[in-house]
Amino acid sequence: MQEQHNIPQKEDDSRSEFRRRTLKGGKIIFNNLQSVLDCTIRDLSMAGCRIIVSSQADLPTEFDLRLPGSDEKFQCQVIWRKHQEAGVKFK
After folding, report:
1. Which residues contact 76 (CB under 8 A, 6 or more apart)?
2. Which residues contact 3 (CB under 8 A, 6 or more apart)?
3. E strands along the chain, which residues?
4. Which residue in 2, 14, 23, 74 is deepest, having the highest Cβ count within 10 Å?
5. Which letter does DSSP use for residue 58 in this model?
């Protein structure tokens, strides 16, 4: 009997680049640097990432994403939203 391995397909499998799994804290900065939200970065590539936020209601369509402990800053645009998760692309 042959064993089958089912690999779960994600709705965003059509992305152009492989994203590596990660677990990093991040800061979402918007409103002319006046507002900051904490987030968790889950998948990361050169083109974008998947983030988890506590409330989608507060998440703007465009924002800057900073990685604490680093000078890195990414300009982001939300591509999809689902529950507390969002997929963003880097501009």
Report:
1. 48, 62, 63, 64, 65, 88, 89, 90, 91
2. none
3. 20-30, 35-44, 48-52, 62-66, 73-82, 85-90
4. 74
5. G
Q: What is the CATH number of domain 20-90?
A: 2.40.10.220
CA dihedral sign, ordered 11, 17, 20, 26:
negative
Place of tokens 């982001």: 76
Residue range 13-67, pLDDT digits in tens? 454 556 678 889 999 999 999 999 999 999 999 999 999 999 888 899 999 999 8
Tell me which residue has tokens 């965003």: 12
Contact 61, 30 (CB under 8 A): no
Assigned token pair, 29: 């900065």
Q: In angstroms, rounded to a whole number, what is the distance separating the alpha carbons of residues 68 and 47?
A: 19
Determine the Cα–Cα distance for residues 26 and 69; give it in Å rounded to an integer. Answer: 10
Domain assignments of the chain as residue spans, ordered by start: 20-90
